[in-house]
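1st attempt posting a full record on here, be nice pls
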Amino acid sequence: MNIRRQLEERLSAALLAAVGKPMPAMVAPAAKAEFGDYQANGIMAAAKAAKTNPRKLAEAVLAKVDLSGLSEKVEIAGPGFINIHLRNEFLTAGVNALAADARLGVPPPDRPQRVVVDYSAPNLAKEMHVGHLRSTIIGDCLANLLVFTGQDVTRQNHVGDWGTQFGMLLAYMDRLGQSGQSADISDLEEFYRSSKALFDSDEDFARTARDYVVRLQAGDEHCRRNWESFLDQSLRHCEEIYQALGVRLTRADVYGESAYNADLPKVVGDLRAKGLLKESQGAQCVFLDEFKDAEGLPLPVIVQKSDGGYLYATTDLAAIRYRVGTLHADRILYVTGSPQALHFAQVFAVARKADFAPGDVQLEHIGFGSMLGPDGKPFKTRAGGTVKLMELLDEAKKRAYELVTGKNAADVAAGRANELDEQQRREVARAVGIGAVKYADLSQNRTSDYVFSFEKMLALDGNTAPYMQYAYARVMSIFRKAGLEVESVQASPIQLDQPQERALGLKLLQFSEVIDSVAANCQPNLLCSYLYDLARDFTGFYEACPVLDSPEPVRSSRLALSAGAARVIRTGLDLLGIQTVEQM
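the predicted structure (as tokens):
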């Protein structure tokens, strides 16, 4: 049940009647309790557009709006805000419906979209490093959430598995074998570093490497076999990272640059047939009037270099053709860093001009900022090198183990928890450590840079994964003490008699609104903020409203309300890709 949508529909109808033309009725939860539960804050913009007094417009809207069954009181505040106080009976019915709903009030779509989510995309020539973290976890979260909303989702891992660097790596493999050395590629980073050093210092080797590229592209059996072996080893490393992160990408989701190789000449041919290509300094380019440089000259989208080679733009255009023509995508999300915004804007524009993507297919660049070190610069090792992602995750689990051990000892001493053995503490620490890294990232506005800090992300207070996991464990402790399962109390009628019960119930009903917003805007931080607020509302309820010590039917009502909170927190964290724990 999306309360905001119901309010907006009714207020929009009233605005249309008052102004004479359609206008959006922006509605949001009220910032303060005394303003009611929701506030129509779009009256000011509507009044400006209609060139009328906002308070008079608000009065006209109230005279025409039908909020019967939803609201017990509606009032105008300030220059024209409309504050809406919902009926308790309406909220109570909604919370009881949510408690009985496996989808927690999130309705399935009338017509599911086919959504392709392109994310992670590591370079298979190297180990995954911290630069791959944001794309991987933001993309996985969005894919999880879109699946939950009922969309038909295809995950695509557009790995870098083609190009000059692979000629270099294959030539180095053969050189080691010819010299009697083992071509051990278990340490991808060291293997790449050694081959690159030789490529830069030895012109004969560099020529050989370039020849290997030609042989690989021509389908040479020996090169192809070694290339496939290298990719397999690289993908095994990626799979270890994905498993450690709890990311749902699999080998079946890999569709790399090499998959489009045969289509690249066709892309160029189709662009030429459409009359979109122009030659510039020997290169084949598309010039679009909407993209200009500082001097006002059109910026080129180069699709074929003067030597006949292709670029990322060519591959991305081929990928759009495949995703639209073969996967039948209605919406395609590209989860890559914000610096690639211009690249994708140009590629999308060319794809539209060339009819590779019709106008009803949504092409969206889901850009994100950088992860920074304490010095405010891109995150590096102390020596200035790239931080391997697996090493970062191992450090997170190590620090989380120290946190969990100390927290459990303190809770045992205070009589708040049972003692966890070492294996249990390590399992909890894995969930807390990995969850902390992911939540610290996802809780940020994705377009912003943020400073990576183990101390902040592992804090037990504030908007962190440990706080959320502890909040969930706290809810579950109620059921442990009662000897009950969450599922056993879901059918009990819920009453919202106390202010804290009402606040918690209202927050639970806002879950579907948040899911809708994240699905539309691709902002996981909105879900994080919601879960944090929900956990705080549960704490307020827990402290003010005894659960197990209350008489019936209050006890059963509060148990069912607690079960609803547990289910929403667990579901929300799962959509973020974060594991819950029963005890910390």
